[in-house]
Structures are given as C-alpha cells and as structure tokens.
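Support case: pyridoxal-5'-phosphate complex. Customer-provided input:
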Amino acid sequence: MLSPDQIIYLDNNATTQLDPAVLEEMLPFLTSSYGNPSSGYRFGSQVRTALDRARERVATLLGCEPTEIVFTSCGTEANNTAFNSALQFDLAGKHIVTTAVEHSATYRYCEQLAKRGCAVTTVGVDSEGNLDLDALEGAIRPETVLVSAMWANNETGVLFPVEKIAEIARRKRVLFHTDAVQAAGKLPIRLRDSVINFCSVSGHKLHAPKGVGALYVSRRSAFRPTLIGGDQENGRRAGTENVASIVGLGKAAERAAEAMASEQNLVRALRDRFETAILTAVPETFVNGDREARLPNTSSLAFAGIESAAALVLLDQQGVCCSAGSACHTGSLQPSHVLRAMKLSEDRLRGSLRFSFGRFNAEAEVEKAITILRQTIGKLRRLCASPAGTSYVQPQT
Ligand code: PLP
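Agent response - structure generated as follows:
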C-alpha cells in the first residue's frame, strides 16, 4: 500500500481525507458510546444528544433548521430519496426535468425511472457547461413533479444558479431538488433564504467519512420516506443511525462552516497557481467549463493530442492522484457524459483530466505536481502521433 507521503492527492472531488478532528469526535461512538440512540436509558440518550448536535451543525452549514435535515447513507441515497418523495412512488403520467451533466446518482436513477414509465426531459448545457434557464423553464409541463439540477458539477466545478432555478420551479408550482454534494462545505449556502425543496450532501466530500450523507427537506415540502421501518429521523428514514459517521459529518460541517472563506481562498490560490502554471508551460491546454462560475477547488483541463487513460497511468506511477472525468468513469474508455454534453471536440474529450484541491494540499506538493504533469504530457505527446492538422510545441521538461 502507498503511504500518504508517497502520494500527491489532487482528487478531492472524488473523496477527501478524513479530518483528524473529525475522527477524534467519532471514536467514542465506535468504542465506548455504543448505545442505541432510540433507547430510553441515559446510555442511549447521550448518543441521541450527539446526533442532535450533528444535526444542528449540518443545519448551520446549510443555513436551515435542524428539523429539516434527514441523515442518509450517502449522497446517492439523498438524491434517490428526493426523487422518490416527489414522485410519491407513482410514476404514471409524471414528468421530471433534469440536466445533461448530473452525477450518475441522478442520471442513472432518471434512466431507471424512464424505463418504468416516468417521462424525463434532460436539459442540455453550452460549451462552457452553463444551463439555458429559458430552455429549462420551457421544459416544465403541467405533469412535471420535480426539477433537479446540481449546485456544482463534480467534473468541471461549474456552478448552476440553483436559487434562480428554484424560483422558476416555484412559479410553475413544481418541486425543486439540488444535488449540492460538491458545493456543500466549499460555498456559502443559505437554504432558508431560498425556495429549494430538497438538497443533497455527502460526508466524504467534506472531510467526513464515506457512507454518510444528508438530505435537506424544506419544512414547506411534503415528504414520503424511501426506507420504511422504525421511527428514526422523525419517521423520515428508518434504520438505526450510523451514529459515528453522523457525528463525523456534524464535526466536518462545523469545521467547514467556521473556516469557509479563509480555507476556500487558500484552496483557490493553490488551484489557480496550478492551472496558470500548466496553461503557461503546456501549449494546447484548455480549461473545460466556465472559469468564473466555478468551484474554487476544481480544474478540469484538456490536453490536446493525449489519451487521459495513459496520462492517469503515468501520473499514478509518480504518485499523483487525479481523474479523467468523474471517479465513476475511471478505467472506462467512455468519455465523460459531462464533457460530451458540452460538445467538446473528440480530442479534448480524450485528453481531459480533472484536478481537485483541498484543505490538506500543500504548496510544495502542488509545485511538484506541476513539474510531473508538464513532463508527463510532454512524454505522451512525443509518444503519440499527432492527429492530422495539429502541431504541438513540446513543453520544456
Ligand atoms: N453527487 C455528486 C455531484 C457527486 O460528486 C457524488 C460523488 O461523487 C455523489 C452525488 C454521490 O455521493 P456518494 O458517494 O456519497 O453517494
């Protein structure tokens, strides 16, 4: 196994390192405080108190009330649950509007719903990854029950104006869900000032453990649970709670909320340093997606004349972790559906890599990654035959 000091981890949109402060708060709930939060005695109720605290902390991060938070097993479950609730488990004659660049936790579920008789309209994006709000509004029909659009794209970092989309949905009397898995902890969110009905988050994208998430359900919205059984989560999600992970999510939310502005400035500076250095040193390199309306930590770069799969292998050999498109597509030769929806050229689709920065990245490792990446792209371009009509100036290595 590679030790952490052998790797340069630039894949924070895939997952993040568990924050030691988060682990510390979790440990008692994996060891001594193992009571069931639903039990009536104090050994259980002290665990219930810890869950309540976590709920308050997540609510503070999202700018909503603690009662509006339902803990889930992951971001995927949060997304699926929002869809199920809006559809009330009855698909006949119903219609959903979503976008062409959603995570598989949304688009694969929509594919399933479509197979089972629900009409789904997928609104496209432009070459910068931006949505046409008029097209989205025009897609809403009398039988539409839900509009779902992500807050921040996991591959390009491009931000959708979700508050505006929520207003459109409200005007049309349709529920609105946003997948904020990549936005939560990276951008200020105040759900109480919005008309968003459902909002999904995931712990492992903000330095909490994998396997825990949350769904915001606005108190104005009717809700139908997906998991039926016990009365946990106020009857909105049955199943004994994953206490330690929920406590971890709470701590991670608190840390993200406390240090949001300063931390994101530091992360942005690392991303910008990396991106500028690569764009300067490596010719025929392009940024995928809108460079302004973008997460501060994400850089999706297209390198003309290379295969991203080959680049990933060479970078991995040198300890650099990044991805081609989303993590779910790693190892697959299929170009990312997000970049494809942006109608990038085949060359850009084939040669795109995503770098995503985070709290635990240091300047020195970013500098090292810049050198390694320059050399890797140079090497690949020397190895690969240039596509017809394209000529490259080899980067200095
Ligand atoms: N939505 C987005 C935008 C994501 O990036 C991810 C994870 O990559 C998910 C949903 C799924 O979250 P989880 O891994 O917690 O199921």
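The mean pLDDT is 94.

Case will auto-close in a few days if no follow-up is received.
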